[in-house]
Amino acid sequence: MLNKLGIYNIYDLITFYPFRYNLIKRSDLNSLMDKDRIVMDGYIENTPTLFRFKSKLDQMRFKLNTGSNLMNVTIYNRGFLKNKLNIGTYVTVIGKYDKIHNSIVASELRFGSILKDTIEPVYHTTYGLSNNQLEQYIKELLENNIEIKDYIPSFLKEKYLFNDKLIDIKNIHNPKNLNDLKKSIRRLKYEELFIFMLKMNNLKTNKEIKKGLKRVVDYNLVNEFINKLPFTLTPDQDKTVKDIYDDLVSEKRMNRLVQGDVGSGKTIVAIISMYINYLSGYQSALMAPTEILAEQHYNNIKNIFKNYNINVCLLTGKIKAKEKLEILKKIKSGEYDFIIGTHSLQSDDVEYNNLGLVITDEQHRFGVNQRSSLKNKGTTPDVLYLSATPIPRTYALTLYGDMDVSSIKTNPGGKKDIITTLKKESDMKDVLNSIYKELKQGHQAYIIAPLIEESDKSDLKNIYELEENMNKAFGKLYNIGILHGKMTDIEKEEVMNKFKNNEIQILISTTVIEVGIDVKNATMMVIFDSFRFGLSTLHQLRGRVGRNTIQSYCILISNKETERLNVLTKTTDGFKISEEDFRLRGSGDLFGLRQSGDMKFKIANLKNDYKILLMAKEDSENFIKNNDVTPYLDELNITS
């Protein structure tokens, strides 16, 4: 049962911290409202009466004399305590206050009075293992003379006046007062974040001394290529290209994150990077999270380089065995310069000839192991990550401590901001009119549903219900298609191609269309039950329209969380939205770190403890700068 909670040894048990605390404090009746939680102690005034029901349930009633009041107490399924509840027995009652009848519906009875305020730990439990049992196991363990490693260097303990770690661990499981508890929690959070930042800063230090591929490339050749493009790069794109060029021609190995808003032009920056790498005689691999996006990149790259002597191939899971063998053979021989694909690019049977650049698109959708396995395919290939989920710069510098970060904030010229409105379900007539207005102009629309099928537990719009409703409204005039994750790849591709070719005018979809799909004629995005999504996901979905110079629109439909969703009606700046999303939801979903497995803090929280994180960042940098940290890192089992 302990294993189910992730507890496998003594250290796991004593660092299995409470997730909250109950403050057991005698209530002041004058300040309580009806239905408030109440804690009251006193004498039992009468012999309790017990009522038993056929379903093996029971109800017990008695009067509690608090010294200044006589209160009626009702408690269920505690009949087995009746013989212990004699007149004059002193008990503490915890439950819900019924102000009108001056009574308590009790949830818990404790024998004895409240001598002082008590802070009780509350742990996550599992079936068959109670909070009291966990508390007792931990208490017994901490009463023994156990040794525990303190990972905060002594000079930092002195700087912050921290206790020994064991004192704080004892205090967090059995706190005497709130002030000491807060100090202990802060100290244990700091230690976790110090170790984390030490690891991140160590990665950065090691990265800086790692030798990469040194290239000799004339920047004039790069400029010639850029000048032949049918559009002009923005200042941010120019700067990012120069950052990447400087990385590629230096001896250090590039490890760069390019983050930019939806439609900001990260892809062309990646393509220019591939061209610089090609001029040096190396292969480039671009890995996308979905086959649809990989195919889109493949087609775009083929089109851009149609007048160049550059060979491009596509490698995805659906390539037939015979064709795949031929592609693998040409990759190994070096015949292909650009290899575009999904996670198939990291398969054991893919051998590169001279892989010099690895690009991961929508990097937050891949776990750390997935990203690493591809960058280890070459000897020391340079690595570029692309992310359309912008991260506030301060957070990026902290969390991606082992990467350099380039941000593209300015959108290419000519694009108009997407007009976003928030509607309720009762406004459906207006929503349908808005959709119809765009369709009449020959444009197309996305309709997003959060569910694929009906759910007994939810009244959320599902994809088939929306299809039926859209058919009633528009079926006689326009073609309607559906797209979701349970469809086969062939089915998805067929629907997407029809939508791209305007054979389908209304596409009803789940968030499978969130990443990278580019249909320039689509100008309307309608998202049902939008409260179900994070702001960054909604921003990504919104980015599927506005891919052209035509004015585009996004309608969020929700009867809930309108204040949160209003953020999207006020700005199209993904960086501002990501800051708000980080504030509201924390780092897990936003950074895609849950799949990495290295962010499972026992007590710290990146969102709530950001000030402590910054302290830990600065302290860890100074520690690495002024000390030989190798033995320390070995003990922590921290490696680059």
General description of the model:
The chain folds into 4 domains: 3-140, OB fold (Dihydrolipoamide Acetyltransferase, E2P), CATH 2.40.50.140; 148-209 and 609-640, no CATH class; 227-408, 3-Layer(aba) Sandwich (Rossmann fold), CATH 3.40.50; 419-571, Rossmann fold. It is of the alpha/beta class and 640 residues long. Helix 7 (235-249) packs parallel to helix 8. It starts with 9 loop residues before the first helix and ends with a helix. The protein has a 7-stranded parallel sheet with strand order 11-12-10-13-14-9-15, sandwiched between helices. A 6-stranded parallel sheet has the order 16-21-20-17-19-18, sandwiched between helices. Mean pLDDT is 85; it is low at 364-371 and 587-599. The chain is built from 21 helices and 21 strands.
Give the gist of this structure.
38% of the residues lie in helices and 19% in strands. It contains 21 helices and 21 strands.
Query: What is the CATH top level name of the largest domain?
Result: Alpha Beta
Estimate the mean pLDDT confidence: 85
Q: Report the C-alpha radius of gyration, rounded.
A: 31 Å
Largest sheet: number of strands, sense, barrel closure:
7 strands, parallel
Characterize the overall form.
globular
**CATH-level-4 superfamily name of the largest domain:** P-loop containing nucleotide triphosphate hydrolases
Q: Count the DSSP helices.
A: 21
Give the CATH topology of the largest domain: Rossmann fold
Q: Tell me the count of domains.
A: 4
**What is the number of strand segments?**
21
